[in-house]
Predict the structure.
Amino acid sequence: MGIWPQKYSKKTLAFFSLSAVLVFLLFKSAFSSYFFQDDWFSLRISQAYSITDIFRFFLPVKGVVYYRPLGMQVPFFISQTLFGFTPLPLRIATFSIHLVNGWLVYRLLKKIIGSTSFALASAFLYATSATQMIIFYWAATIAFVLAPFFYLRSVLNFFDKKEWRSWVWFVAGMLVNELLITLPAVVTMYALIKGKLEVKRTVKFWLTALVYFVFRLKIVSFSTTGGYTFLTSMHQVVLNLRNYLLWAFNWPDEITNQFASFIRLNPEFMRGFLKYVSVWTIESALILLCFVVVPLITVVKRKILKPELKLLGFGLFWFIVTLSPVLLFSKHFFSYYVPLPLVGLLIFFGVLWQRIRYTSSHRYATPLLLIICSVWYWAAMNTMQFNTHIHWSVRRANRSELLVTKLLNAYPELPNNAVVLIPPKSDEENRWALGESNAVKLLYDNSTLETFFGTRTEYSLAFPDSQQQLFVLP
C-alpha cells in the first residue's frame, strides 16, 4: 500500500483540502522568516562540489552531537544547490511533508481505532498543533518533520505485515533523526497487544537499533554536558513531563518559565496575558472532558474490555517511549519533540472516544468532534499570535535578516582573514542570530573570515596583538 489510498471519498478529500488551507494560515508567518542560528551551520556543512563531497555527508561531523545526514545535510544541499541561500524552498518542503504526515496520522488512527471521523479529527489536531511552529520557522529542524514521516511509514508497513519494507523505512529514518531509535519498542509493544509476538518480525529492528547505538557511543558520541546533562531528580522528570503535556495541548513554549509552583502560574503572567491563558485553559478542559472524563463515565454502563485496555496502554506507551530520548535532559527540552508523542496521545484519546457510542450522545459525536477541532485551532492561533511577539525563533530570524542586510549593504566584499565586528558585546541575540561566525563565512564564501561580537575597543582588549583588518557593522 502506498502513501495514498486508491479510493477515498470526496468528503475526505474536501476535509484534507480545507485542513491544508488552515495549516497554511496558521503557519503563514513562517514562510517569510529568514535563516538564523543553526541554519547557518547546517548550510555550511551541506555544501558539496563533487560526488565525494556528497558521500562525506554520511561521515560524522567533528564537534556535532547529532548524526542526521538525510535529515540535515541532504535537504540543505538540495535546497541551496537548486535555489541558493533562500529559506522559502525549505519552508515549502516542510509544509508539504507536514501535510503528508497528517495523512499518515489519519491512516494510522483509522487502522488502530477504526473510526473514520476520529481519524480525520486526529489528522487535523496533529497538523494544526502549535508545537509544529519551530519546525516551520527554523529550517535546521527539518529533521523533525521528516522523522514522523519515516516513523509512521515504517509503523504502517509493520502493521500491514510488510516487515522488510518497514525495516527499510526504519533504517533510512535512523539517518534522518535519532528519535527513530524508539521504533522497535513501539512495534514490539503493538505485536504484544495483538496477542502473538513473532520474534522474527522485530529482531532485525532491535539489532539495527543496537548497531546504531554502538555507532553513536563509539563514533558520534552522545553529549552529556551542558543542556544534555541527564537529570538525577525524579521531580524534574515530572516537571519535564508536565511541560511536554502542556505543549501537546497547544500551550506556548514560554509557559515552562511561568510556573510559581508545579500547577500555579505566575500571577503577573496571568494578569498580563489573561486572554491567552483563558483560551488555552478552555481548550485543555474541553479536550480532557470530551476525550477522557465523559468516556470514562461510560464505565458505569459498560466496563472497559481487555482489548480497549491494551490499546489505551499502547497509546500511553507510545507517548512515553517516543519522549524518552529527551525526557531526562536537564535543559535540552523543546516543543518540536512533541509531534511524535502526540500521536500516542491521539491513540489514547481515540480508544476512549469510541466509548461515546455506548451513550445516548453518540449521535452528536461528529458535531462534537468539529467543535473540538474548532476550539483546538482557536487555541493554536492564539499560541501563534502570542509566539509572534515573544518567541526566540521569531526574534532571532528577524534579527538575522536585519544584520545580514546591513552587512551586505555595507561590505559587498571582504578580504581574506578579515574580522567583522558586530556590537554591542552584551547583546547575545546577535551571536545566536548569526550562528557565531557561520553566517559571515557562508555569505562571503570565505572560511578565513571571523566574527567578533563587540566594539573595536573590546576587540583590541581581547586581541591586543591582532593585525587583522576590522570591519564594523554600521
Observations:
- Residues 394-472 form one domain.
- The chain has a mean pLDDT of 89.
- The radius of gyration is 24 Å.
- The longest strand covers residues 419-421.
